[in-house]
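Model: You mentioned two targets. I'll fold them one after the other.
Researcher: Yes, keep them separate.
Model: Target one:
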Amino acid sequence: MTYCLAIKVDQGLVFASDSRTHAGVDYASVYSKMYRFDLHSDRLMIVLAAGNLATTQAVINLIRRDLENPGALYNLNTVAYLYDAASYIGETSVRVQEQHASAMQRCGISGEASFILGGQIQGQPPEIYLIYPQGNYITVSPDNPYLQIGETKYGKPILDRMIAPATTLEDAARCALVSIDSTMRSNISVGPPVEVAIYRRNSFVVGHYLHLDYSSPLYALIQKQWAEGIRNAFTLLPRFEWEDGGSIGSEQSQ
């Protein structure tokens, strides 16, 4: 399992991912799940990947091969819109899965993979897309300005509470780190290093990139202060009516 997320705010985009992969309970390894590509100066795209590692690596390799092929009619440099790139990645993923479907089914292994594509093409706004194993995709809305793949449930509550279009890029990045840390605390299949990329609207370069382990001072401080903040907030919750100094009146006890 893995956990990746992308956030879209007015100022730009934030991407974050863990790096743990599993092949059974007794074998875990570290692989980056965040991919950047050498593209023309009028565009930037980042892909996050979750699911079967062989499938995700094959898809990324095919994307890179098409970029290096001067005769390729369709690649990340030739698409006119980001949703065309999402379609291209989805079609590539389906093709890879179909090549190995029968062998994987015999072994009881799923070859499915999901991707998040985000970036910007000049003249268009920044966008993010979640690409399903079936090749179709969705994007965000103002009410739901983020996308997740992998082990999503533990890191979702803070995103729902904190992320809005007006959120700054830096706050969105801090929120992404807390979201991943919450997931790692609840699920051992998600683990460090954590990668974070911050893209500012219309810059066409990754403005900031972080590679954080448990020992990274920034990550350790975020963990510490977030845990302390939660404990402090908990102590301020209203008291029950039977507690000394309670703030809930008896009329509310039914």
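Model: Target two:
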Amino acid sequence: MSSTDNAPEVTFTDEQWREKLTPAEYAVLRQAGTERPGVGEYTDTTTEGVYSCRACGAELFRSTEKFESHCGWPSFFDPANSDAVILKEDVSLGMRRVEVICKKCHSHLGHVFEGEGYPTPTDQRYCINSISLVLNPAK
């Protein structure tokens, strides 16, 4: 797992983040919240394109790595660029998980899970909150 010791490229004060993001976006991206399953804008999207961080615009995932996991959130088997995200141990809520955060601004994106048996090249499921993403459709 990577470390979050590296300072983010994009930084704002808490007040600036609150001005930039809606309350729901702030709760997920800056406070590591989770949107309810099945309600996200991109859960069932099959549009080709690039998914970027809603907070800073960094490219994170591509539609070619998105797959249907039936878990209620958009799922990807690999980031667009392995350096685009940071993986961090998360022991909140009495569980041991791996949090996925944007390398550029250190915003919370979701969690990654392994060994669930999905037929993907990596056997990983990056379970990402739709509200953390913006889809830029392919032209």
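Researcher: Noted. Anything on target two?
Model: The longest helix spans residues 14-20.
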